[in-house]
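=== RUN LOG ===
request id: a7f3
mode: sequence -> structure
chains: 1
length: 28
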Amino acid sequence: MIYIGIDVAKDKHDCFITNSEGEVLFNA
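=== RESULT ===
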């Protein structure tokens, strides 16, 4: 399973994608 977290702030947006093993697939 893949988890996607998105933080939408006024000045900066963050996106974080990880899988069920805890490996980071994408971090921006």
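=== NOTES ===
DSSP finds no helices and three strands in the chain.
The chain has a mean pLDDT of 89.
=== END ===
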